[in-house]
């Protein structure tokens, strides 16, 4: 990229603005866990929900297929989860890995939890696990030269594809 080049990512502004004005009464993970109908689940990008966890696409992904798994309860730290909740978060994570291998042909994964703001937690009040699919050669010149990340698929398109696979098992 030349110095005068510009790459537009207008969807990022909502995230950037939200960092300065977090609403303590509005947790997007709790909102997703409470989504009761198909329209609200779609709006929150909820792929599915178990009794103890909610599984959803990350609205501000590091890469295509970036999924979050969070306990349904608003809990900030691992020691606040009981054994059943911990097991369920891991079980849902395993299901996400299986889904993403099929849906986006992921060859590997970064999976992790950021505990506390200093560790990078964007929502330090509600623990959540990141599942980030990876591919051989997925680091490209955009990140090196332009300090830009490229997400090759629209979020809504990926959501529709994942929901189809979940519903049909294909």
Rg on CA atoms, Å:
16 Å
What is the number of helical segments per DSSP (H or I, 4+ residues)?
A: 6
Low-pLDDT segments, ≥5 res: none
CATH architecture descriptor name: 2-Layer Sandwich
Helix content: 25-40%
* H/E element sequence: HHHEEEHEEHH
Strand line-up across the major sheet: 1-2-3-5-4
User: How many domains is the backbone divided into?
Assistant: 1
- The overall strand count is 5
Question: What's the CATH class, please?
Answer: Alpha Beta
Mind describing the biggest β-sheet?
Answer: 5 strands, antiparallel
Instruction: Name the beta content range.
Output: 15-25%
Q: Judging from the principal axes of the Cα atoms, what is the shape?
A: globular
- Average per-residue pLDDT, rounded, comes to 84
The first-to-last residue Cα distance is 40 Å
From the 3D structure, determine the CATH topology: HIT family, subunit A
CATH superfamily: HIT-like
Secondary structure class reads alpha+beta
Give an overview of the whole structure.
- The structure is a single chain.
- The chain is α+β, with helices and mostly antiparallel strands and 170 residues long.
- It has one domain (12-165): HIT-like (HIT family, subunit A), CATH 3.30.428.
- Helix content is 37%, strand content 15%.
- It is built from 6 helices and 5 strands, in the order αααβββαββαα.
- The longest helix is centred in the middle third of the chain and has 22 residues, at 83-104.
- It is globular, with a radius of gyration of 16 Å.
- 20% of the residues are buried.
- The model has no long low-confidence stretch (mean pLDDT 84).
């Amino acid at each position: 990229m030349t110095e005068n080049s510009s790459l537009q990512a207008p969807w990022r502004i909502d995230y950037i603005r939200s960092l300065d004005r977090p609403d303590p009464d509005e947790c997007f993970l709790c909102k997703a866990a409470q989504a009761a109908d198909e329209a609200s689940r779609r709006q929150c990008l909820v792929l599915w929900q178990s009794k103890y966890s909610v599984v959803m696409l990350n609205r501000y992904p590091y890469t295509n297929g970036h999924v979050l798994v969070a306990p349904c309860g608003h809990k900030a730290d691992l020691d606040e989860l009981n054994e059943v909740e911990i097991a369920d978060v891991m079980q849902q994570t395993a299901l996400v890995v299986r889904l993403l291998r099929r849906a986006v042909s992921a060859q590997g994964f970064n999976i992790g939890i950021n505990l506390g703001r200093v560790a990078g937690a964007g929502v330090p009040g509600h623990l959540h696990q990141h599942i980030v699919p990876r591919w051989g050669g997925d680091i490209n010149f955009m990140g090196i030269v332009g300090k830009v990340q490229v997400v090759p698929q629209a979020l809504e398109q990926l959501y529709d594809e994942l929901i189809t696979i979940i519903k049909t098992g294909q």
